[in-house]
User: Fold this.
Amino acid sequence: MTTSTNFTDILYRVEDGVAVVTLNRPDKLNAWRGEMDRDVRAAMRLASEDSDVRLIVLTGAGKGFCAGADMGLLQSIQSGAAGAASSERPRAAAGYEPWDPTARADFQKQYSWFPAVPKPIIAAINGACAGLGLVLSLYADIRFASDTAKFTTAFSKRGLVAEHGVSWLLPRLIGFAAAADLLYSSRVMTASEAQALGLVSRTSPAETFEHDVLAYAKALARDVSPRSLREMKRELWNAQLQPLGEAIEAANADMPASFQSEDFKEGVAHFVEKRAPRFTGR
Assistant:
């Protein structure tokens, strides 16, 4: 079953337990702006609160995933006439409402809220992925790429810095030296190199990319416990900021509730009865 909802800068649909959020400014390579930020947050909230949704796929329309911040916005910040707009940026950030105020403080920042979304997010990188677009993809749980996708940090060629936590995220995924190379040079990286470095988990031909990503996402929506996905996502992201002993203790504290859950009972039952699972997320 497929349902859909339209926004200003994105498309949203639910298909077989998977919410697909599509950045929809193809003429601008889906460059990020305020309206898109608002729409993506609203779509993620909609998916989070929909009991039929078990995973979220974030992708782009046309030839781009997200080419970074809208150039018009960057020009307005750069221009003298935008001095007021620039001075308003700290006030906007200070008034930014976290996605989940109960989440770890690290996941309450303006672009670090994806880890606080209670359902796994797959970034399906179908094309150009640059600057802020790359940062957003790094906050996803899993990244898949079309074989035609291209990646660049872009910041050094704009006179900018390693923005929005990319200096923390990128070395954890590909190592310090590789991260430094990509940040310092802003060179363009192919999908095959991104996979070799571990930046993306797998690549697919452009012709079958959407089908391949959705097949993976739908398999998870169908075959595994949504409660397990929810708890594992929280544990994985929190563990990035915990010593080993703390991560062990936190997981041990989570175990009694899992043994009492309906999904645990169903997990045992469907295995013993040799049938397809009927998980509920409870």
Q: What stands out?
A: DSSP finds eleven helices and eleven strands in the chain.
